[in-house]
Amino acid sequence: MSDHQQTNRLIHETSPYLRQHAHNPVDWYPWGKEALARARAEDKPIFLSIGYSACHWCHVMEHESFEDEETAALMNERFVSIKVDREERPDLDAIYMDAMQAMTGQGGWPMSVWLTPDGKPFHGGTYYPKEPRYGMPSFQQVLRAAADAYHNQRDRVDGQAERLTAMLRRTASLAADGGELGADILVEALQQMRQYFDDEDGGFGSQPKFPQPMTLDFALTQHRRTGDLDALWMAELTLEKMAHGGLYDQLGGGFHRYSVDAVWLVPHFEKMLYDNAQLLRTYLHVWQVTGRPLHRRIVEETIDYVLREMTAPDGGFYSTQDADSEGHEGKFFVWTPQEIEALLDPPTAAIFGDYYGVSARGNFEGKNILSVVRSVEQVAQRFKSSPAKVEAALAQGRSVLFARRETRIKPGRDEKILTEWNGLMIHALAECGVVLDRPDALAAATQAANFVLAQMRQPDGRLYRSYKDGQARFNAYLEDYAALIRGLIALYEATFDLRWLGEAAQLTQIMFEQFHDAANGGFFQTGVDHEQLVARRKDFVDNAIPSGNSLAAESLLRLAVFLDKDDYRRQAARILLMMKEAMARQPTGFGRLLGVLDAFLAPSQEIAIVGDPADAATQALLATVRRRYLPHTVVALKRPGEESMLPLLQGRDLVDGQPAAYVCENYACRLPVTSADALAELLAGKR
Predict the structure, then answer these.
(1) Given 348, 382, 410, which residue is the final one in a domain?
(2) How far apart are CA 22 and CA 12, in angstroms?
(3) Which of 85, 342, 530, 669 could pair with 15 in a Cys bridge, judged by C-beta atoms 3.0 to 4.6 Å apart?
(4) Are 67 and 101 in contact (CB under 8 A)?
(5) What is the pLDDT of residues 538-566, one digit of tens each?
């Protein structure tokens, strides 16, 4: 017998987020024809609730309102209620988030939007409490007001809905204007970034603070392009502060979603695959530039976290880990001094607590989020010890506390496998795997690519968005194609298996067929045969994840070099021209696209290597390239005697029977070199 008093339609969904609401007394529908038809037939407004399984405030609103019989009765009487997982349906999330921001000036989840029966928004907000507080109306008050407005002020509601819908459709007609793409855009963007930069604690703005790896990567490209030490400092300071704060899991590795304060101490505790994928690459890049051990350690520990916690047995990467465990946010991650003292001997506990800021008062609801508050050298001085002994004590403490933490009830994990997020992680693990000689990371990237291409592809070659419980669902979006294409290109450059480049080229062709706007340039988020929504958007602005168009432009530029396709370069340029003014004015919204512009303006840089990858001399040449931060350089390899389809490799061969490297710009190559030292000399002057 079930303990649940009621079950609604969401029980048949694969999304963990939707299934969390399957036993609410609310008569929930998933988004689809049935719900929309009922709204039209009964002339009822739609209440649309969008969230995701790791969202803390989504859980709070469910407990307060959606599990409440009185609130549910009101919803069931006056609305058709639809629940959407934003991770499965980024198209709906993007449309109605744009509408909510236009109405309220803010965004976030849970998203609460009221629609006419044809899907046009007329009112919206985020979390609403059960009772009025902090100047916010109660959820029931908002429900009654929305229902009253729909039935008794219809002209006003329809007018609002039409105005918002017209606004939502504007991106569809965006076109590339004339003009030139110049380095002045990069210079202005960097100047704008400096104005928002926190000189003391890193990051941009005040609180809450988000990691913004794309913006930091752009800063690193500008340091590389011009030697600007200020750009490097912005990236280094931010990444160091994040690594030392509670945003980073000091015991288990990996980053939480964002910090609620300005000093990176108290996070929202959910962990997202996409954040960790992007931060892996950013920390790798700053390590390539600086060689600082801290940055490499963060990469290594985050790889360990992803392989341990977020990797499915058959391949693919899970989506998120929850902020809550046992009904409390952050409970899994925090400590009391007594817990630590019971696990460690007194000297080790004292050193551990001093380094990680553990106190009786605590820093989060009476307990302690571990964060680095002083250096190893400072702790050594305070305890009249050596840095080596302090390091040993800290390592022991981390090991013991991590083992004990593993016995706690873990936060829930959303085990959906999403094509887009997997593409980002494939890219990260392929790149980190070969740079840091982590064959386990490269193997995981390869296994994930195999999984997505085998289990999340339709018979005609098109992709699905989501996979869960043996079922692939939802036609993929632009961002799914663009992220996976970029991941496959990275996998080729890590393995030199032409299969990955072939798969990337095939998916690029489908991307053009399904999403490209041949008339105006750029790509729509949804395919030509996608269900008709109130708007067909083009997405250019980076949020927590790179926009589909910035990922597409980056992949096209790289494929243009590998496949010698000038049209790909022209299509990337059209995207850049569409956003050239916005990029300069709002750099934190266009970090990935600014990096694409930097690559577009730089000479095409190629390295062709001929040699057996198992040969020590070939490996030395590859290591010389990979140790350096060369973000816009493409690397191709062919084995001796092999015929290659890649123009870059044609006519290249061993030199005097030795593995050789050809360093080229725009396919014009210097004389080949056969030693790592000679190759390093050639690369030393490249920007």
Answers:
(1) 410
(2) 8
(3) 85
(4) no
(5) 999 998 999 999 999 999 999 999 999 99
Q: What is the pTM of this model?
A: 0.95
How many other C-beta atoms can be found within 10 angstroms of the C-beta atom of residue 382?
Answer: 14
Q: What span, in angstroms and rounded, lies between the C-alpha atoms of 548 and 482?
A: 6
Cα separation, 261 vs 242, in Å, equals 12
Three-state DSSP at 440 gives: helix
Cα–Cα distance for residue pair 236/287, rounded to 1 Å: 9
Say if CB 619 and CB 613 are below 8 A apart: yes
Query: Which tokens go with 46?
Result: 């739609």
Provide the token pair at 508.
Answer: 């690029």
pLDDT of residue 341: 97
Evaluate whether residue 3 is within a structural domain. Answer: no
Query: pLDDT band at residue 326, thresholds of 50, 70 and 90?
Result: confident
Do the Cβ atoms of 124 and 114 come closer than 8 Å?
A: yes
**What b/e readout covers 651-684, taking b as 16+ CB neighbours within 10 angstroms?**
ebeebeebbbbbbbeeeebeebbbbbebbeebbe
- Residue that is last in its domain, among 410, 433, 453: 410
Distances (CA, A) of 219 to 204, 270, 558, 594: 12, 27, 20, 10
Question: Does position 193 have pLDDT exceeding 70, yes or no?
Answer: yes
